[in-house]
Structure formats: structure tokens, C-alpha cells
Amino acid sequence: MRSVREIDFFKNIREIREYEFGVFYFFDGLVISEIKEDVVFNWNMAQKTIDAAYEIIGREKPIAYISNRINNYSVVPTDWLKFFTNRHQLELYSVVAYSKSGLASLILERMFFKNNIRQFSDLESAIKWSLTKLESKENLLQSQ
What we know:
The chain is α/β, with parallel strands linked by helices. The chain has one domain: Transcription Regulator spoIIAA (2-Layer Sandwich), CATH 3.30.750. It has helices at 43-56, 79-85, 100-112, 123-143; strands spanning 15-19, 22-27, 30-35, 40-41, 64-69, 74-75, 92-97, 117-120. It starts with 14 loop residues before the first strand and ends with a helix.
């Protein structure tokens, strides 16, 4: 179980936003979250993160989101419906889960998240997969 600050990829950081509910790391096209222990992550919290992502990365580029679940917390799964109702688009979503509770939360999220959620057991693999997929999507957009 490793925090973003502990891996080599951290040197590519663009900005860090710390909130009362967690820390969000912004890279080119990539957002990695580390939600704090025992938080119930809801739509209001997500909205702050979405606004920050648009401010830092922009609306025109595809965005990959990695939930690095180094702490035990829960997500309000029905709030994904609010995400889509507000016309937000998340190109890639992956979860790095280290515990059974992290996996259980993921099962519930999959019921409400319209796109595919990719699961990983280590952060570096999630980053590598996300960057490869982002590059493919950006190449496809440029060729159109």
C-alpha cells in the first residue's frame, strides 16, 4: 500500500489539493485521490474535485481518475447518478484497492457507474494503464 507521494511518478505532479475529506493529486490528464479514513464520500465532495480538475487540466482533454484507497472509507454509490445528470464525463476510472472493504465498496459503485471501472492491486499499474489509455484517446482525438 503506497501513497502517491511515495512513488517516482510523483515528480510529474502539477498540483495538489487538500480538502477536509482527502488529498487529490493532479497530473497531465490524470487525477489520483486518497480519501481520508472513515469519510463517506458524497456528491458535494466530488463536485469540489471536479471543479478543481476542470480548472487545472481543462475540459477539452480526456481525464483519467484513480482512487488510491489507502484508507477505509465509503462512497455514496447513488451519487454517481448526479455525476452523469450534471453531464460530467470521466474517460477512465480505476480503483486501487488493498482491502476487502475497498473491494466491497467497488462492487456497489459498479452498479451505478455507467462506464467500466478497472481494478488494480497496486498504484503503479493503475497509473501505467491510465496513461496508456489516455494517450490512445488523445491520438484518436487528434486524428479526427
